[in-house]
Design goal:
Strand content: under 5%
Number of strands: 2
Number of helices: 18
Shape: globular
Oligomer: single chain
Structural class: mainly alpha
CATH topology: Growth Hormone, Chain: A
Order of helices and strands: EHHHHHHHHEHHHHHHHHHH
CATH class: Mainly Alpha
CATH architecture: Up-down Bundle
Length: 414
């Protein structure tokens, strides 16, 4: 019989794998400038690389979410890791722009499986009072993995060329794909004192669109992701063009600030939200709303500053504020739906935030840059999106004030 992992070790392994998830995703943006030169593509076409990834990512997420609430989740995790790692490796061998787009779509498919399933495994391992902190630790891998993608990608490109950045980023995941297979996965609902035997139907899944709190979380997340997707794509290039940093310098700075601000901000936001939530049932929503609102003027200052030092300081502060919601927003997604729909809720979240968020934003910024001949003007659309997200999350906080928790988390019985 497969041995059961302790909650600590399950969280440790899934967080480590999530680090490689984001490293493989963000290595692309560290080498974007030399890659554009290699294939002779414009800014608008470069934005299409993100579009290809997102199509693979969000289009397959609902399928993996449906499977994740009905079948063995550890096999879906293994499949996801293997597919995204293979796609990253193949990116390094792409001989045409079309093949590169196909490889990035493949990375998106693999990451969709992992990102959809992993939070539900963690949620079934930790009770409500510990869940947000556990998810916060899991999502700390986002800034660390992204930073490593920027730093490692930039350094390997500088010494060996952009092709090798993808080759070396993809190899570890091929071996790590099987790491969870020898172990037994946690029982659904056990951490909440429930036994989940009812498998959700398509009707149950569509019922989530009637949950007001869930919808406010998701649409706020859409606006937030619209801004962050384009910000992550064009951040290093912005520093190169507007402030004339070298490719390696821009990638290293962006990676280092992402790691520092992301690590500190994610931990601070997650644990502060847990403490706030103990005193106020709207604590999670209040933190994500106010931190995003505070980031709006700071982001505007970063994009308008003519002094390089001022711009870099403001970029770092904006990134710190925007990493504060990372844990609480995902906890809200899970806790505003029935227990046996958690994987599906994550899948819907992935589908919505990318279909209406960062699927379009990098290309929109690129098109504005092409039309105005100014990347600086292109990125100025992003603070407006953050403002929309902040307002929706603050409305959510009002909905949660009078009732502890989110929507009733009943097992979906008919």
């Amino acid at each position: 019989m497969n041995k059961k992992l302790s909650p600590f070790w399950l969280l440790f392994i899934l967080t480590g794998l999530n680090l490689f998830n984001y490293l493989d995703r963000y290595v692309m943006w560290a080498v974007l400038q030399p890659l554009q030169q290699s294939f002779g593509i414009s800014d608008g076409q470069a934005g299409r690389i993100n579009t290809a990834f997102m199509l693979g990512y969000f289009l397959t997420a609902p399928f993996f979410g449906w499977l994740g609430d009905r079948t063995s989740r550890k096999w879906l995790v293994a499949l996801g890791i293997f597919v995204w790692s293979l796609g990253t490796l193949f990116t390094g061998f792409a001989s045409s722009f079309l093949l590169l787009l196909m490889c990035r779509a493949m990375v998106g498919v693999g990451e969709a499986s992992y990102a959809t399933i992993s939070p539900s495994l963690i949620s079934d391992s930790f009770s409500g009072e510990k869940r947000n902190n556990a998810l916060t630790i899991f999502y700390v891998a986002i800034p660390v993995g992204a930073a490593l993608g920027y730093i490692i990608g930039g350094q390997i490109q500088a010494h060996f060329g952009w092709h090798y950045a993808f080759i070396w980023a993809g190899i570890p995941g091929l071996a790590l794909a099987v790491v969870l297979l020898p172990f037994r996965e946690p029982e659904r609902g056990k951490a909440d004192g429930a036994t989940v035997s009812v498998k959700p139907s398509l009707s149950d899944i569509f019922q989530m669109f009637r949950l007001v709190r869930f919808q406010l979380v998701i649409w706020g997340y859409v606006a937030y992701t619209f801004a962050l997707g384009a910000f992550g794509t064009w951040g290093p290039a912005y520093l190169e063009r507007v402030h004339h940093l070298s490719t390696a310098h821009a990638a290293t700075f962006f990676g280092a600030v992402t790691a520092g601000a992301g690590l500190f901000g994610t931990f601070l936001g997650g644990f502060a939200a847990t403490a706030w939530h103990k005193r106020n049932p709207a604590g999670y929503a209040l933190l994500i709303g106010w931190s995003t609102l505070a980031a709006v003027p700071v982001a505007v200052a970063a994009f308008l500053a003519s002094d390089t030092t001022v711009a870099m300081v403001c970029l770092g502060l904006a990134m710190l504020l925007l990493f504060l919601p990372t844990g609480p927003v995902n906890t809200l997604i899970i806790e505003t739906v029935p227990i046996n729909l958690r994987a599906s809720a994550m899948a819907i979240s992935i589908f919505m935030i990318h279909l209406f968020g960062d699927l379009w934003s990098p290309e929109i910024v690129g098109r504005i840059s092409d039309k105005t001949h100014s990347l600086q003007k292109g990125v100025l659309v992003l603070p407006g999106a953050l403002l929309i997200g902040a307002v929706l999350w603050l409305i959510l906080s009002q909905k949660l004030k009078d009732r502890k928790g989110g929507e009733p988390t009943l097992v979906g019985a008919h």
